[in-house]
Automatic annotation (TrEMBL):
Assembly notes: Homodimer.
Protein name: XS zinc finger domain
Keyword line: Coiled coil, Isomerase, RNA-mediated gene silencing
Highest taxon above the source species: Eukaryota
Family: Belongs to the triosephosphate isomerase family.
Gene Ontology molecular function: triose-phosphate isomerase activity
Organism expressing this protein natively: Musa troglodytarum
GO biological process terms on file: gene silencing by siRNA-directed DNA methylation; glycolytic process
Lineage: Eukaryota, Viridiplantae, Streptophyta, Embryophyta, Tracheophyta
Part of the intact protein present: 1 to 220 of 843
Signal peptide region: none
């Protein structure tokens, strides 16, 4: 089954209004394959979601970097999934390892319907697998400049697909996109993308790199 390629940009906790506008300008001018071929999704911090959505070209989508696990209410500082839906934000990154390592987030704190932990295999109740993209991100590769080899990525993605096949269904295994994240950049993405079970990327640092380059050149 052909799976649509997926490229997500995780901006993490970065940016000012001016910088966000600059990034969106660059993205709006980028030449990318049509939306029938690739999903391009950018994930700015919560405070910039509406701004990015209002300025971004219509063939690109926007994701939040986290959301609250229950309905809204007396949960100071949290943002619920309903609020994201209300804003027209169709995607959210859940259970990122930075939240687990730095903030002590656990499987229970991630959205209850999306709980799949490869080391300690738990597959939660997912309402509709068509809405799920799985990201394999070795913690040693995130933000370190150390990228998994294409063989390493392929082996893990194939194992994850088998996990879905054996525990969910062959159909879900065949259709679910499994993307790689961890120091992906323009130089290493081609070889990784050529691996049969790699359906795209979650890109952190490199999705903001051109911003740093612009800053440097404006200082020169
Ligand atoms: C990430 O934040 O999910 C990520 C993969 O970051 P980086 O590309 O910087 O390693």
């Amino acid at each position: 089954m052909a799976r649509k390629f997926f490229v997500g940009g995780n901006w993490k906790c970065n940016g000012t209004v001016e910088e966000v506008k600059k990034i969106v300008t660059v993205l709006n001018e980028a030449e990318v394959p049509p939306e029938e071929v690739v999903d391009v999704v950018v994930s700015p911090p919560f405070v910039f979601l509406s701004l990015v959505k209002s300025l971004l070209r219509s063939d690109f989508q926007v994701a939040a970097q986290n959301c609250w696990v229950r309905k809204g209410g007396a949960f100071t500082g949290e943002v619920s999934a309903e609020m994201l839906v209300n804003l027209g934000i169709p995607w959210v990154i859940l259970g990122h390892s930075e939240r687990r390592l730095l903030l002590g987030e656990t499987n229970e704190a991630s959205f209850p319907y999306v709980s799949l932990n490869f080391g300690n295999i738990t597959i939660g109740r997912i309402l509709d697998w068509n809405n799920v993209v799985l990201a394999y991100e070795p913690v040693w590769a995130i933000g370190t400049g150390k990228v998994a080899t294409p063989t390493q990525a392929r082996e893990v993605h194939t194992a994850l697909r088998k996990l879905l096949h054996d525990n969910v269904s062959p159909e879900v295994a065949a259709s679910t996109r499994i993307i790689y994240g961890g120091s992906v950049n323009g130089a290493n993405c081609k070889e990784l993308a050529a691996q049969p079970d790699v359906d795209g990327f979650l890109v952190g640092g490199a999705s903001l790199k051109f911003l740093q380059q612009m800053d440097q050149s404006s200082e020169e």
